[in-house]
UniProtKB/TrEMBL annotation:
Keywords on record: DNA-binding
Coiled-coil ranges (or none): none
Higher taxonomy: Bacteria, Pseudomonadati, Pseudomonadota, Gammaproteobacteria, Enterobacterales
Source organism of this protein record: Dryocola boscaweniae
Entries under Pfam families matching the protein: TetR_C_7, TetR_N
The keyword Aminoacyl-tRNA synthetase appears for this protein: no
DNA-binding region per Swiss-Prot/TrEMBL record: 44-63
Positions of the HTH tetR-type domain: 21-81
Name of this chain's protein: TetR/AcrR family transcriptional regulator
GO molecular function: DNA-binding transcription factor activity; transcription cis-regulatory region binding
InterPro entries: Homeodomain-like_sf (IPR009057), HTH-type_TetR-like_transc_reg (IPR050109), HTH_TetR (IPR001647), TetR_C_Proteobacteria (IPR039536)
Length: 222
């Protein structure tokens, strides 16, 4: 047997996969910080490349354009505001499940990150309606549809009475996200201090009370 035959087999490919994932993660993180600080319009691929410590070419090897990068950032962080789909065989009460779906008991740091992402999404969607459309088309955002599926599933199990899952899902999302964003914006505009940790806790308790009220309507035994 020759020496060449005694050499161990060299497996190829894995390092490149790891390198790709690491580069992608760095780009998404760089874009996240840039979009939050500068907004969509003022964020350039050059700035993202600088923050991610990669070349502009590396960005285009992973993402088609800036809209694709923005959608990916939103998709990466959407876990902060909706926890769907739910685990199979979940035995929690409807009330507790909805609290978990809307992540009403997250940490203070996660709450701050959620506020930043929600504000970014809403602000940029106002300035760039086509960006909002793209988020839905690319399924970076499809929380309403997922919530509708959950409501319909619970209806089929006899746990809820939902005549229109779309209206019910929209109402629940308005209750939660309508309370999470505007107060902070009003405080900023009026020059008032933003909500502190205690203020956020009170805000979440109010949201929980509203969800309980909705549950009484769609689940009289709640």
């Amino acid at each position: 047997m020759s020496k060449a035959e005694n050499l161990p087999t060299v497996r190829r490919g894995r390092p490149k996969v790891v390198e790709y994932e690491d580069r992608r993660k760095a780009i998404v993180q760089g874009a996240y910080s840039a979009f939050l600080e500068l907004g969509f319009a003022q964020t350039t691929t050059a700035e993202v490349a600088r923050r991610a410590s990669v070349s502009k070419r590396a960005i285009y090897e992973v993402f088609a354009n800036k809209k694709d990068l923005f959608a990916t950032v939103i998709k990466e962080y959407r876990y902060l505001f909706m926890d769907l789909p739910r685990p199979e065989g979940e035995t929690l009460s409807l009330e507790e499940t909805l609290f978990r779906i809307f992540r009403l008991d997250i940490s203070e740091n996660e709450a701050l990150a959620r506020e930043a992402i929600l504000k970014l999404m809403t602000r940029e969607s106002v300035f760039f309606p086509e960006l909002s459309d793209y988020l839905y088309e690319s399924k970076a955002i499809h929380s309403r549809e997922m919530l509708m599926e959950w409501l319909e599933s619970e209806h089929e199990k006899g746990k809820l009475t939902v005549e229109d899952s779309g209206i019910c899902a929209g109402m629940l999302m308005d209750i939660v996200f309508g309370a999470l964003i505007p107060r902070k914006w009003v405080s900023e505009i009026e020059g008032k201090p933003q909500l502190d940790a205690e203020g956020r806790r009170h805000q979440l308790e109010v949201i929980k009370k509203r969800i309980r009220m909705v549950l009484r309507g769609i689940n009289p035994t709640a």
